[in-house]
């Protein structure tokens, strides 16, 4: 370390050979080894302020710059809720985001539900908390699982997700990408009825169609109708069904080693709680002098935020406080990239078919092969590759011959 009047500079070279030394096993010889064998791979320079006499370079404010820009731009999050009517989807959404998105909702009667088909309803609301703006989009699927024949209930949801991916791909490929709007579905809350002993066939078919397109989070609805033992048994059966049918739901990322113990414990609790057995309520009751969201029963009150009564708090923590950005990252890096690769592959195949069709048409019209400049260039490249392969073959034969000669000399 060399000290100056304003700051201290520490130059550390890190390479493959230095990893063992940096791990702490040879701390006494680290400095000598770095001076004698400087690594050409990575150089880490730490600049420390010397008693505040002068400021350092200033790039340490980059996180603040990113924060200000992100807050000014705002955030987008799209949540899809899937499940049959009567499971409390609307109530859960209102409880999670402290709003009333379904104020003007009309509940269809039994006659309307006989031939009810799955539709898609999208509602958007702006939420601001401590200066941070969130544009929340809720995609509801009324009619799912209500008809007698539910074979095609998954088609509407899958088509909607694909359409949002396709729209984003079109905007991303356009000329003006400054004001792109992200309407891709970042998470799908799939509601399982509490009276089912495991996942039903319609549930398995729906999740099998969607698990490669969106992050699925399984929710056991109306968990207050089950005992603690029944909830535990239902969770075990759901996880077993998912594993048996190879359905990939959202996987929580592993904690970094430098995280504090409190965050690690919270992450372990969230992983152990999945699938989440929730109780939702938009009614505020007074219990013991405190105002809580709960449900009033003849035998008592169920507090939706009490972890002994429901996993509502854990679901809200995972969905909003800890893993919202990770849900968006997985959507971008995994699901959207898979869709984008398929689109590019289809475009390439279509271009090749069109090119072959044009070539056949030109051959039919001229009764002879009409080579373009691109075709000639490809033929030249193929010829060069063949010549290089012949040269490599000859070199390998010479090396083998020299090795045999060397071995015979040694044997003598």
Give the structure's gist in a few sentences.
It is found in: Cytoplasm. The chain has twelve helices and twelve strands.
Write a concise keyword list for the protein shown above.
nucleotide-binding; 12 helices; Rossmann fold; 46% helix; alpha/beta; single chain; three-stranded antiparallel beta sheet; 412 residues; cytoplasm; disordered N terminus
Number of helices: 12
What general form does the structure show?
Answer: elongated
The sequence of SSEs as H and E is EEHHEHEHHEEHEHEHHEEEEHHH
Which percent bin holds the helix content? 40-55%
Rounded to the nearest angstrom, the radius of gyration is 31 Å
**Which architecture of the largest domain would the CATH scheme give at its second level?**
3-Layer(aba) Sandwich
CATH C-level class of the largest domain: Alpha Beta
Major beta-sheet overview: 6 strands, mixed
Structural class: alpha/beta
* Structural domains: how many: 3
CATH homologous superfamily heading of the largest domain: P-loop containing nucleotide triphosphate hydrolases
Question: Might you state the CATH topology name of the largest domain?
Answer: Rossmann fold
Contiguous low-pLDDT stretches (5 residues minimum) are 1-27
């Amino acid at each position: 370390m060399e000290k100056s009047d304003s700051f201290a500079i520490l130059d550390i070279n890190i390479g493959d050979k230095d990893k063992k030394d940096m791990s702490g096993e040879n701390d006494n010889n680290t400095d000598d080894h770095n001076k004698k064998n400087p690594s050409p791979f990575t150089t880490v320079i730490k600049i420390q302020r010397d008693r505040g006499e002068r400021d350092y370079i200033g790039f340490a404010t980059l996180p603040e710059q990113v924060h200000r820009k992100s807050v000014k731009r705002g955030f987008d999050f799209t949540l899809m809720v899937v499940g049959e009517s009567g499971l409390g989807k609307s109530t859960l959404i209102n409880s999670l985001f402290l709003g009333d998105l379904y104020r003007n909702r009309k509940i269809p009667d039994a006659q309307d539900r006989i031939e009810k088909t799955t539709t898609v309803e999208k509602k958007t609301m702006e939420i601001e908390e401590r200066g941070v703006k969130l544009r929340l989009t809720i995609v509801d699927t009324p009619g799912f699982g209500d008809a007698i024949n539910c074979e095609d209930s998954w088609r509407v949801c899958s088509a909607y997700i694909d359409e949002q991916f396709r729209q984003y791909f079109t905007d991303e490929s356009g000329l003006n990408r400054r004001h792109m709007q992200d309407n891709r579905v970042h998470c799908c809350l799939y509601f399982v009825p509490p009276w089912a002993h495991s996942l039903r066939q319609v549930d398995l078919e729906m999740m099998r169609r969607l698990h490669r397109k969106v992050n699925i989070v399984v929710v056991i609805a109306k968990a207050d109708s089950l005992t603690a033992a029944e909830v535990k048994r239902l969770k075990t059966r759901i996880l077993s069904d998912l594993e048996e049918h190879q359905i990939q739901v959202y996987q929580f990322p592993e904690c970094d080693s430098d995280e504090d113990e409190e965050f690690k414990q919270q992450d372990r609790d969230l992983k152990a709680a999945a699938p989440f057995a929730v109780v939702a309520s938009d009614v505020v009751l007074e219990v013991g002098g405190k105002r809580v969201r709960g449900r009033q029963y003849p035998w008592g009150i169920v507090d939706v935020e009490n972890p002994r009564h429901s996993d509502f708090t854990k679901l809200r923590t995972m969905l909003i406080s800890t893993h919202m950005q990770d849900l968006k990252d997985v959507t971008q890096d995994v699901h959207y990239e898979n869709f984008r690769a398929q689109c590019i592959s289809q475009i390439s195949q279509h271009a090749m078919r069109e090119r072959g069709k044009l070539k056949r048409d030109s051959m039919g019209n001229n009764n002879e092969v009409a080579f373009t400049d691109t075709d000639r260039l490809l033929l030249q490249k193929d010829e060069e590759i063949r010549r290089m392969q012949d040269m490599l073959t000859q070199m390998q034969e010479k090396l083998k011959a020299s090795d045999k000669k060397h071995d015979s000399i040694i044997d003598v």
